[in-house]
UniProtKB/TrEMBL annotation:
InterPro entries, per database record: EF-hand-dom_pair, EF_Hand_1_Ca_BS, EF_hand_dom
Source organism of this protein record: Winogradskyella bathintestinalis
Region of interest: Disordered: 100-125
Domain EF-hand: 70-105
A Pfam short name: EF-hand_7
SUPFAM superfamilies given in the database record: EF-hand (SSF47473)
Protein name: EF-hand domain-containing protein
Amino acid sequence: MISNTLKTGIFIIAIASISTIGAQEKFKIESKKKELKTDPSERMFKHLDINADNTITLEEFKTKELKDKSKEVQFESQFAEMDTDKNGSLDKTEFKAAFEMRREKRNPNETKLRAKKSNTLEKKG
């Protein structure tokens, strides 16, 4: 027979293990949330990558973004332009480059300000 003290010890170890695993998972989730908050291109990539395979296909792109069927040709053209290696899907690097280029076209002053701020932080660090 196992003594009550040994049973209690095993129980405490089990609870501690579960707590540690829970804390590790919470840390991973919080880290991921911070990452997504700081990088809008990452957030958009995750939104478009329906099957979570770290690539966005034309079908995934159209499924999430195409609300008006009359713009399908425009979306296909936009996707082809973003797919720089012409493999039929967008990886994170291609998507981020296209995302940043589009952001710069919309607001060139914001991009300059962000670059200036980044350079200032690098000099301080």
